[in-house]
Amino acid sequence: MFRTIDETLFVAGQITPEDVAEAARLGIRTIVNNRPDGEEPGQPTGAEIEAAARAAGLEYVAIPVDHAGLSMAQVEATRAALAKPGPTLAYCRSGTRSTNLWAATRALDGGDKGEIAANAGNAGYDVRGLLASIG
Question: pTM of this prediction?
């Protein structure tokens, strides 16, 4: 269910409060929610995931991304979340927005775009178009 992007990040589609225990078992220390509440009927709310994360002793950060695309504020917030100790689990509907935010932070920090694309590709995400748009 959780896809490994690199040693700092796992991504997933929508998680449930029950999935938080599995994240904690895997050593994840922070959960980042990249999905706005109410995007799809029946999805768990951010507050539900946050409560489960706090109960499991995990950090929780909300950086919702809607279909308007990524903003620099979201990239900066992602950079700060990824700087926290231990691995992070970021989720959205499919994991794509979470992976794109990770790729943008890495590219803007001067990471090798080929390596970034390979890591994302190994997890099933194509970030090459995004990377091409980053100077």
Answer: 0.96
